[in-house]
Amino acid sequence: MAPTREFAGATLSVDLGAIANNWRNLAARLGTSNCAGVVKADAYGLGMTAVAPVLADAGCGLFFTANIDEAIALRAVLPSVEIGVLYGPGSAEDAAACGAHGLIPVINHLDQLIVWRNHAKQTGQAGVAMLHVDTGMARLAMPAAEIDHLTAHPDLLDGCRITHVLSHLACADQPGDLLNETQRQRFEDARTLLTPVVGSEVTWSLANSSGIFLGPPWHFGLARPGAALYGINPTPGTPNPMRPVVQLQGKILQVQHVDSPQTVGYGAAHVVKAPARVATVAVGYADGYLRSGGGLAHACLGEIRVPIIGRVSMDMITLDITSVPDDVARPGVQVDLIGDHYSVDSLAADAGTIGYEVLTSLGNRYQRNYINSPLAAATS
Ligand SMILES: *Cc1c(COP(=O)(O)O)cnc(C)c1O
Q1: What is the pLDDT of residues 301-352, one digit of tens each?
Q2: Whose CA is nearest to atom 3 of ligand 1?
Q3: Is 40 a catalytic residue?
Q4: How far apart are the C-alpha atoms of 282 and 333, rounded to whole Å?
Q5: Preceding omega of 307 cis (within 30 degrees of 0)
Q6: Could you give the 3-state DSSP secondary structure of residue 2?
Q7: Which of 99, 125, 146, 268 has a Cα at 20 to 30 A from 336?
Q8: Of all atoms in ligand 1, which is nearest to the CA of residue 208?
């Protein structure tokens, strides 16, 4: 567990019950297709070692991390789940670590395949791996030419056992984008080409969180949601079907009454007209509160939305709380920076980014509370 930070200026609450509920919600939408859990980047900043056991308890048996360190940390808390490592094995050392910890590397190109095959040969291990094929990202995955090469030389897979073939959607959060159907078709084509090579037992997987909402043709045998588990809206522009997971609260340190017009904060970037009240809250960019939210983002006192004025400092933000009654906004009172009336997605939109970046930027200076854990030995 993260150490308690009793005197921290801000508190991050992570609703583990909501995460479990979100996983079940997605799993139910998938019907007979399976549902994995993506926990890379410390479960999108929320704390992988707290989150993953809750997902496992909800029924998740397959997890994805980006790198091997994350996967080893996950293995330490979940000894018997399947763990896919998205970066794959770039070296013999990577392969050895995957083998030692029972991780399933994702093979993203032919060099990685050779590394993994050599490892399997040398150790006599089964060479269990997943294959990631490119269908439109041109990022980390096997390009079409390499898929053709593999199809023509199936012996390249000797000593490996492929359990899953993956691909990743570029525009799943925009259901109207034609690339979704194009990628789905390319994935079908890859399936036709590769099935004779990898075998018919293999599980196929295309959808991330938003991909699940594109509908059954995108579901294949397995979906790999991350963001939606953590309360980010997988269907932007329509109501969020997921439960909110994160509440972030910051403490008011001071309230200043402004009697004559004056500027607020660094760069004198904001002018308040008197009479007004300005509250300073104990959170800043060093906490991962994005500096780009200065002058644009909001906070909430109860249901009242108050604007952040001026720049975000390292440890502080300033709010115009003129609209809030005096007795509601006093030093020591907590304001919601993310909460029921201001979602992760709203903050992200105001700050010019996406919910993913808001969550993965969350620093380690907050007091962290894990609430509503469905596990018997609840995290405290
Ligand atoms: C991050 C990632 C996911 C999860 O995507 P979300 O949009 O967070 O659901 C799935 N698959 C791959 C390959 C990824 O890199």
Answers
A1: 999 999 999 999 999 999 999 999 989 999 999 999 999 999 999 999 999 9
A2: 208
A3: yes
A4: 11
A5: no
A6: coil
A7: 268
A8: 9
